[in-house]
Amino acid sequence: ITGYANVKYCNNPAIINEYDQNKNNIEAIVKCSEDAKKVNLGFQGTNKVIFVLDKEIDNKVFYFSFPMMHKIDFYKYQENKLIETKSYSKINNQGNEYVYFNNIGQSNNTIIAITNTKNSIQFPYMVFETNDKFQSFIKDRWFFDGIWFGVVLFTILLIIAFYYIRKKIVIIYYSMHIAALFTIQLAFSGYLFSTFNFLPNYLLNRAVVLACGILTFGTVGLIYRTFKDQLPENKAIKSYGLVMGVAVLHFISSILFYNQTIIKLTSYLTLLLSVSSISICLYAIINRLKHSSAYLLSFSLFLFSSLAFTLKDLGVMNINEIQANYLVKISLLVEIFI
Description:
This protein has helices at about 15-20, 25-30, 130-165, 170-190, 190-195, 200-230, 235-255, 260-285, 290-315, 320-335; strands at about 1-5, 10, 35, 40, 50-55, 60-65, 70-80, 80-90, 100, 110-115, 120, 125-130. It is of the alpha+beta class. The strands form three sheets. A six-stranded antiparallel β-sheet has the order 3-2-5-10-7-8, covered by helices on one side. The protein has a four-stranded antiparallel β-sheet with strand order 1-12-6-9. Strands 4-11 form a two-stranded antiparallel ribbon. α3 (about 130-165) packs parallel to α10. The chain is elongated, with a radius of gyration of 22 Å. The two termini are about 30 Å apart.
C-alpha cells in the first residue's frame, strides 16, 4: 500500500542559511544533498538540516508526521518554481498532527524541508500511490488511536480503583508507568499539542522529558519493589533500585532546564530503563523469584520496543518514527492484557 522514497539531506550551514534567506538556490541545495541511508539522523549537533525529495514523490501523496519536531518548513517546487509552502510547529500547529502534499498527476516535483529542532533530527514520512489509499490510512490511524487511548485511559481508571481497594504502593508505581506512557503517546501522536494547546509552553515543551522521568521511576519502582520483598539484601536488586534515583535527578534537571542536552539525556535514561529492567527480570527468573516470568513476559515487548525507539532517536537503528510509534503502542496493549 505504501512505500518509502529515498531521502537526501544537506547539513552545510552556509548553504542552508543562504536558502533560508532567499529560497532560490535550489540547485545548490540539491547539489549539497546526499542520499541518507536512514530517515533518522540522530543528534547532529545542529538544529538545522535540509531534507530533499524529488523524483520519488511524483504522482504520489506525500505524508509527514513527527509532532516532536519543534519546527519544520516545507517548500514544494515544480520545475524549480516555488508553488506551495507548509509549516509544522509542535507548539503552533493549528490543530494538525501531520503535513501532506498531494502530487497525484504531477511530475518534476521537489520538496525541500528545513528542520529547526532541539530533538533528534528525523524525517519520518510515507508516500501513497492514490489519494484513496492515503485517506484510508488516515481513517485507520484515527480509529486505532481512538481504541488505544480509550483502552489505556480505562486502564488508568481501573488502576485507581485497585489502589482504593488494595492500598498497595506497587499499584502507584504501575499507575505512574501507564500515565507516563499515555502522556508520551499523546505527544508523539500530536494530540497533546493540538488538543491541549491551551497549556503553558513550559509544560508542552517538557511534557515528554518529564514523563520519561516518571515512566522510569514508576517502572523500576514496580519491578524493584516486587523482587526486593523476596530478596531484601540482594546486591543486584539494590543496584537496580538506584535507577530510581537517576530518574529523580533527570526529572529535577528537566524542570530547571530544557535544551538538546536534556533531550539527549532523556534518550539515554530510556536506554538505561530498557537494558536494566530486562536484565533484572532475567536475573529474577534465574533465581526463580515470584512473578519474574509474568513480569518478563508482560514488560519485555514494551522494553524491547522502547529500546528500539531510543536507538532510533540516537540514530543507531534505521526505524521510521511512524513504525516505531505503533510498535510502542501495540506493545503496551499486550502488556496491559497480560
